[in-house]
Each structure stands twice: as structure tokens, then as C-alpha cells.
Amino acid sequence: MWHDYTNALIAAFGLSGLAFGIGQLAVMLGERMIEKRHGTTGVRDAMVRRAKMEALFEARRNDRVTELREAAAAVEEAVRDRAVLERRLKSAQQSGESLVRLIGEEVKGTPCYIAMVANKYVGTADFQQSQHALIDSSWAQPQTIEVWAKSMAEARAEIERRYPPAFGYVVTRMQDVGAPAAPAIAKAG
């Protein structure tokens, strides 16, 4: 008797599994027929591809947001640095101490020349209405430049290399620092 019940139970499980498989097959075939009839073939593949693309776009967006934050921080730091430098420049200009620009290196035995250089384009009537785009307004007045060179001609060449006359820079005065103020005249006896 147990044997008959066991066989019936196994047969019932087998038939229910077979019915489940047939049902799944019918559902799958029905879905395919509906997809073909309504023109939605490959929708599942497209959805899978689009889901992958969405994930990649989201990762790319996060990378760009991170880069943008870093760039914004760098810009903010540059703005702060510029403000500090502008304050330092303004205080240096107001302190009464003159700014001296140096050209060359101080080497023992090499004479130092002091030159006064101005820019003829800054401060002229053409540019007084607005600031010059590339040259600071302080160049309207002669600026002090110390040049370390072997000769006055070489010193002038170095100044003109650094501050080209083509851009409006003009050497207004130049003197040797070590030169005596007035040569002594010896009386003949």
C-alpha cells in the first residue's frame, strides 16, 4: 500500500513539474509572439544595454563632478593668492619704499648700473581713459632697475632684452653705481 502511495506521489510531482515546464514554455512563446506582433523585438537587449550605459554615464558624471570640485578649489585658491599679492603690492606702493627691479646676478668684480626705465604707452592721452591691457600703470613713472653687467653697453642690452623698446619701454637715465660723482682735477705745479 505504501508503495502505491509513493508511486502516486512521484507521478503527481512529475506531472506537476511537466505542467510547470509547459506553462513556462507557453508564457515564453506568448511573450515572443506579442513582441513580434507589436514590433518590440530586442527590447530586453536594449534595456540591458541602456542599463549598462546608464551606470557608465553615472560613473562618468561622478568623475566630472569630482574634477569640477577640484578645479573650483584651485580657482578659489588662485583668487585668494592673487588678493594677497595685490594687498602686498598695494602696501609696498603705499609704504614709500621704491620698488627696485634686478637684472643679472651680483658677482664680485662685476659693476652695477642703475637705470630708470618708463613706458611711453602708459599714461599717454590714448591710454589715460582705460588701463593698458598688458602693462601696469606704475610704468607711467620711471622705474628703478639695477643691472649687473660687465659694461654699460651690455647693461643697456640686457635692459632692452628684458624690457623691449618695441613694447614702449624707454631708458630715461643710466649710471654706474661705482662711478665717482665728479672727477678731481689735478693742478699742474
UniProtKB/TrEMBL annotation:
Transmembrane regions listed in the UniProt entry: 6-29
UniProt keywords, alphabetically: Coiled coil, Membrane, Transmembrane, Transmembrane helix
Coiled coil: 68-95
Entry protein name: Uncharacterized protein
